[in-house]
Amino acid sequence: MNHNSDIRNRLFDQFTLTVLEQGWRNVSCANIAIETGVEIKLAFLEYRNRYAYVTELVRRIDRYMLDSYDAEMSDEPARERLFDVMMARFEAMQAHRPLIVALTKATRSDPLLSLHLMALSRLTADWFLDVARISPSGIGGIVRKKGALAAYARTFRVWLKDDSEDLSKTMAALDKLLKQGEAALRRAQKLACALPKMRRRCRSSSRSSNDMTQASSNSSENEARSVDDGALASVPS
Questions:
Q1: Which residues are CB-contacts of 136 (< 8 A; sequence separation ≥ 6)?
Q2: Burial profile 92-122: b = 16 or more Cβ within 10 angstroms, e = fewer
Q3: Of 23, 121, 142, 149, which has the highest C-beta tally within 10 A?
Q4: Average pLDDT for residues 165-178, to the nearest whole number?
Q5: Contact 50/29 with Cβ under 8 angstroms?
């Protein structure tokens, strides 16, 4: 379906205004269309329910994050790459801070909104690893994905209260969590691979990681570094 960008933007702006002035519980897709002067059937084609507006918010933030990420970070260690990707997202969220704060408060009384945002956050965590070029394969990959989401969630709580212009509090919190996560993942991997039933899987995971790294790297030096860097995004301790 072809979307009308002008109509989508007008509807989204009215959605934002409605949430800020009347609260999430009073959001009505029909009223948003009426206030915007858009035919209800056209508004329905753009946003089928109020949760679709939330999805649009996350999509806009993710797009800004991807546009602003510095591709030259690819030569940096994995933890630095992940830090840069996550900070790009928090910076993107600044433009929508009032709306995000309002929706976050609304999750306390709307379980469906909370679940919807949680599902979207999991997709964002996948993007964190993909853009940062951190392998999602094997046991370590599962832990990295959960760790990225956990680090983001804990840093998000700091961001909500961070009133500094340069997001210094957010940066400090994220840096600390990723450093803790790096150490935690290494401990977890050593413990898991020490178990008899896990040794074969660990060896298989290591071979898969090596194959993936060799296929995507431009030199043997970068290949070796990518294998080591894969363990740098993990669950905060």
A1: 126, 129, 130, 142, 144, 145
A2: bbeebeebbebbeebbeeeeebeebbeebee
A3: 149
A4: 94
A5: yes
Domains of the chain: 1-48 (1.10.10), 51-229 (1.10.357)
Spatial distance between the Cα atoms of 90 and 37, rounded to a whole number of angstroms: 33
The crossing angle, in degrees rounded to 10, of helices 196-216 and 138-161 is: 80
- Is residue 199 scored above 90 in pLDDT? no
CB 65 within 8 A of CB 92: yes
For the ranges 66-70, 154-158, 208-212, the lowest mean pLDDT is seen at 208-212
Distances (CA, A) of 99 to 13, 78, 125, 139: 11, 32, 21, 37
